[in-house]
Amino acid sequence: MGLLTTAKRIASTDELDLQNVDPGTIRIDCSGAYIGNDILLRDNLIQEKRKNSINGCYVSSSESSATASSSPTPEASSEDENADGDDEEDNSSTSTASTARIPRDASNLQLAYNGSVVVDEELELPSDDYDLTKNITLPQHNSEIIHISVDIGGTLTKLVYFTKSTVNDIGGGKLHFKDFQTENFKHEALKFMIKLISKSCHREEHTPITYIMATGGGAHKFYELMTKTFRKHKLPMKIIAKDEMECLIKGLNWLITKIPNEIFTYDLVQDDTKFIAKSLQEEQDIFPYLLVNIGSGVSMIKVVGPGPEGFERIGGSSLGGGTLWGLLSLLTDAKDYNEMLEMAQRGDNENIDLLVGDIYGTNYNKIGLKANNIASSFAKVFKKLRFTNGRKLTPAEKLAQFRSEDIARSLLYSVSNNIGQIAYLQALRFNLKRIYFGGSYISGHKQTIHTLSYAVNFWSKGDMQSYFLRHEGYLGSVGAFMMGPNHESSLQEK
């Protein structure tokens, strides 16, 4: 449910009275909704860059792969362009003046031989270019939306907002997705929200954003900071906190039933991803399922039907994305989470982990273990460091004995295999055959998706199916956005 407002255009934010802004209960029109590209993994984005390099030029284009719909993609609104543009200016000092930039709305570019914009081949993709592949076009939604949503987790803050198309006679608009480090909430996420809201308050063609749908632990932790900051900028926002688990399920159910090509699986035989092209419509194809949401920690939720009475948190684990990030921060010099995962892709865990073959010399077929299955994570580290000629090594000298890439690969396997096995056991406990993996831990990285799929397939002997989502890290913020600020569904208003 989105919202429709009849609030008049204001001359300044001082004149805005929230009591006179009707939050409405109009649902968002999802007719013909689509994602304008087939990019599932971060690897796919890199492959697109290489594939579209023509005569020394690269074009960032989601149109080069088959689109999920034949519907035209509306141009990005000026609101979105300006909001992101200001953000670029703030960070301009980190890049050279001569560096070209890929246009922010990469989904609107065509291939170079079709006469579109091209940029230098050596240009690296902006850190948020992957987020641009997640934009959802809503070609039939023309009602005003006066809210944004934010899911403030322990590690990442995930924002969802809508912009109307600026193309005459086309209508509709787009849902946009953007994440930030929660550690820098005040200087990154909150700053971006202020710019987005301020622009909406000073544009005659748009109704101002007046509500923030907030979920996650940070919705409570940062409530006072957000309130004081909005007041300082004379933005009379109303913050409505929503239950985290309810938002997760609402977001997942909306995505899998409304958005084609949202769901994909990993084919372990073909070693590749596969779309589930159509959104799910029949209840028996949707429920029941297990949602494994992997953020800083892990929550496992049994879902048997729609609505707040249809789900129950049945377990979880403290070993999640925060564990991987924390340990790799100590053991490697990687600067951020994506760099850590890319480091893992280049690693070889056989230099760190003790394998079944190291113990038996071959497969242990009687119990179904292959020679390359992990018998003990990090056990070779202990074995190697035992024999140091009696000299005591410093921590730095110990780390120097091993490649950071191998350590990253081993830790990724260790955490992911643990999550996969616990997910299998919880699904077995409640006889659930469908397991959806969500959360920013996955981040579109192939090795993580492969490992989770392999673990579930191995332990269930192929009886359970792992499903992944293109908006895996945005389930909570999507759910909060779709609820909208209508008072009947509000958990808490402040």
TrEMBL record:
Gene3D superfamilies tied to this protein: 3.30.420.40, 3.30.420.510
Entry superkingdom: Eukaryota
Record keywords: ATP-binding, Coenzyme A biosynthesis, Nucleotide-binding
Region (Disordered): 57-101
One GO term of the biological process aspect: ergosterol metabolic process
Compositionally biased tracts (Low complexity): 60-76
Short name of any one Pfam family annotated for the protein: Fumble
Gene Ontology CC terms: cytosol; nucleus
A molecular function (GO) term: pantothenate kinase activity
Stretches with biased composition (Acidic residues): 77-91
Cited NCBIfam families: panK_eukar (TIGR00555)
UniProt xrefs under PANTHER family: 4'-PHOSPHOPANTETHEINE PHOSPHATASE, PANTOTHENATE KINASE
Name under which the protein is recorded: Pantothenate kinase
Organism: Scheffersomyces stipitis (strain ATCC 58785 / CBS 6054 / NBRC 10063 / NRRL Y-11545) (Yeast)
Taxon lineage: Eukaryota, Fungi, Dikarya, Ascomycota, Saccharomycotina
